[in-house]
Design goal:
mainly alpha, 7 helices, elongated
Length: about 180
């Protein structure tokens, strides 16, 4: 077997692995979305940083309206509609009292979707307030964080890798190397 043959086989293995990863993400996009929602419920973005601005430093509470200078009351109201709890799947800690989780009625959460793009997923915040929320809290808001990546890899990506070798002619490599 020539070095060109080995390079060709390795290239096909890599292409098969990439395709299997993209397929796994597409088939389990609902899990990815659930992980992102759990991050946000814990007050975290896709880099696992607390969401900012916090209630204590959000200019929203300096604007005229019902919540004008009432961040403390808003936090109490938020505790009543969205308790601070640890993540059920990822085990992320509860959000601190002054950190938002972007959940009020669930509309924003319900509009988040994932679409396969050939090599991964495009996460979309929907057409409602989602784009404004992402603009306020940062582009990495809808990224999948390190804890979620570890969970997804261990529970979905690694089990899916078993299907990769069956689509690659590995016998040619192993029988020629004897």
């Amino acid at each position: 077997m020539s070095i060109e043959d080995v390079v060709d086989i390795i290239g096909r293995i890599a292409a098969g692995f990439e395709a299997a990863c993209a397929r796994c993400l597409a088939e389990n996009s609902d899990v990815v979305i659930s992980c992102i929602k759990e991050q946000m419920l814990s007050g975290l973005d896709g880099e696992e940083n607390h969401l900012t601005p916090t209630y204590d430093n959000d200019s929203y509470f300096d604007e005229a309206g019902f919540w004008y200078h009432r961040a403390k009351d808003y936090k109490a109201w938020k505790r009543s509609i969205s308790p601070q709890v640890s993540g059920a799947v990822l085990g992320l800690p509860p959000r601190p009292d002054d950190v938002p989780n972007l959940y009020i009625t669930g509309v924003f959460y319900s509009e988040i979707t994932a679409a396969p793009n050939g090599y991964g997923l495009d996460i979309d915040p929907g057409n409602g307030n989602g784009p404004a929320i992402v603009a306020k809290y940062g582009d990495c808001l809808l990224d999948i964080g390190p804890t979620a990546i570890g969970y997804f890899n261990a529970n979905f990506m690694l089990p899916a890798r078993v299907s990769v070798p069956s689509s690659i002619p590995c016998r040619k490599l192993s029988s020629s190397m004897k």
